[in-house]
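thread: overnight batch results

M.L. [08:02]
morning all. the overnight job finished for the chain we discussed friday. pasting input first so we're all looking at the same thing
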Amino acid sequence: MTKSELIARLAVRFPQLVAKDADFAVKVILDAMVAALARNDRIEIRGFGSFSLNHRPPRVGRNPKSGERVEVPAKHVPHFKAGKELRERVDHQE
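M.L. [08:03]
and the structure it wrote out:
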């Protein structure tokens, strides 16, 4: 599901919510999540899962085209871990 599909579904499911307001709500939630991860906070949504950052240390990689060594700097990457309820619901879907 894309962001625009989520906004469309929200607007259909909640008729009192104008599509413009649904768009704003989704943007606010996603911006808050990005800001929390940027502060290195963990996000936990009960019944859904949690988002956190994993640290990847610097390493030496290879350019696949030329084969030459390339220094890859350290970085933080977002990580999602599904919650128990989400795993169970997905597992029992047919």
